[in-house]
Amino acid sequence: MSRAPRAIKEQTFEEDPDLPVRAMPDLFGHRGAAETLQKAALSGRLPHAWMLAGPPGIGKATLGYRFGRWLLAGGAEGALPEAATPLHLDPGHTTFRRIAAGAHADLRALRPNTGEKGGVKQVIRVEDSRDAIRFLAMTPAEGGWRFVLVDGAELMRPEAANALLKTLEEPPPRAVLLLTTAAPDRLLPTIRSRVRRLDLSPLDIGELDPLLMRLLPQLSTTERATLGRIAEGSAGQAVALAEGEGLAMQALVDRALADPGDRRGWHALADAVAAKRDGSGFATFIALLRRAISAGVRQAARGEARPEWLGDRPLADWSTLWDRLGQLAAETDVLSLDRKQAVLTALLWLAPPRR
After folding, report:
1. What is the pLDDT, as a whole number, of residue 285?
2. Which of 76, 95, 197, 208 could share a disulfide with 203, CB 3.0–4.6 Å?
3. Domain carrying residue 296
4. Taking the CB of residue 90, how many other CB atoms lie within 10 A of it?
5. Torsion of CA 280, 260, 252, 246, to 10 degrees
6. Does residue 233 form part of some domain?
7. Are 138 and 103 in contact (CB under 8 A)?
8. Residue 313: pLDDT above 70?
9. What pLDDT is attached to residue 243?
10. Integer Cα distance of 37 and 107 in angstroms
11. Contacts of 244 (CB under 8 A, 6+ apart)
C-alpha cells in the first residue's frame, strides 16, 4: 500500500528591515558630511571613531554603510575611480554586493534589540558591545580595514557603553567605529569626547522627494508632497507614516484644524481616529496634530506666513495646548482610557475660545 506524499512544510523567512539601508546606492543629501569622511580617509590620518548625529530617519545609518563599503573596497588607498558623488561605490562591485547581503567578513553592525526576556524596551546589550570590540581587534580578513557601525548608540546599556569606551581609548590599528545617534547628549561625555562628530540635518524637499519616489513608488506626487511636509525631512518617518495610516490621519488633522468649531463633525472624526483597536490611529493622529501645532508656532516665531487657524489664540496658548495634547496621549495609553473620548477632548481644546 503506497503512502500518501508528505506535505511540504511552508518555509517562512524573517524580513530584513536593514536591507534597504545597506543596499542604498545613491546619496540623498548629507554631501558635506560624505565629503568630510572621504577627505579624512584620503588624507592618511583617518580618525578611528566617528559619530553621525541628527533626527531619526534622515539617513545616518545609510551614510554609515556608504562610508563602510567605500572604505572596505579600498577607497582610502585610492583603489576606486573618481566619482561625481563622494564615497561612491558601484552597486556591481563585489564589496557592495556582499555588504548588501550582510556577508562581508570585515563589517559588523550593532543595533538595538529587545532587552530583558519578555520586555519591549530596545537596547544594545553589553555582550553585543564586547563582541564588536573583539571583532575590531582582529586582523582584517581581507587585509584592509575593520568597520563597526553602532546604529542607535544612545540605546546602549551603561555597561555596553563603558565596554566600548575602552576601545575608544586604545583603538586597534586599521579599525573604524562609527556611531549614529538621534540623542547625542544621552551618550557618555567620555565617549563624545573621543569621537569626531558630524551633525546631519533633515533633508529638504528637493532631496527627499526623489528618495520617496524610490522607496514608495506607489504614491502620487501629491501624497509624496504631503508625506514630505509632515515627515519634516525624514525619509524614515515618511515611510513609517505611509505604511501606517499617516496620510489618512493627516487628512483628519487638516480637517480638525481647518474648522475647529465644527462640533457636529467631531464624533465622525473621533470614530475614524479610534477605529483601530491597537490604538495606532490615535497615536498617529495626536503626534501629527502636535507636529502641525509645533510647525505653525515656529513659522509664526520666524515671521513667516502662518496658518489661518493659528490666529485663534495667542502663541503661548498654542504651546500650552501642545503640552496638554502630549499629556493626554500618554495618559490615554498608560491608563487604557477610551480613545474616542480622548479625541473628543482634544477637539474641544482645539475649538476657538468663546468670545
Report:
1. 96
2. 208
3. 244-350
4. 14
5. -60
6. no
7. no
8. yes
9. 87
10. 17
11. 280, 284
Q: Give the separation between CA 215 and CA 330, rounded to whole angstroms.
A: 31
**Number of CB atoms found within 10 A of residue 193's CB:** 9
Residue from 123, 147, 127 nearest 22 by CA: 147
Domain match, 152 and 31 both: yes
What are the cell numbers at 16?
Answer: 530584513
Question: Would you give the distance in Å from CA 14 to the centre of its chain?
Answer: 21
Name the residue with cell 563597526.
148
Phi, psi of 79 (to 5 degrees): -85, -5
Question: Does the reported pTM lie above 0.85?
Answer: no
Using CA atoms of 68, 69, 71, 74 in order, give the dihedral in degrees to the nearest 10. 170
Tally of CB atoms within 10 A around 221: 9
Q: Are 181 and 55 in contact (CB under 8 A)?
A: no
Residues 171 and 261 in one domain: no
Count of structural domains within the chain: 2
**Distance (Å) of CA 298 to CA 116, 143, 259, 294, 314:** 40, 51, 21, 6, 13
DSSP string of 1-31, one letter each residue: -PPPPPPPPPP-----TTHHHHT--S--S-H
Cα–Cα distance for residue pair 227/259, rounded to 1 Å: 22
- Cell 590599528 locates to 173
Q: Which residues contact 231 (CB under 8 A, 6 or more apart)?
A: 57, 208, 237, 238, 241
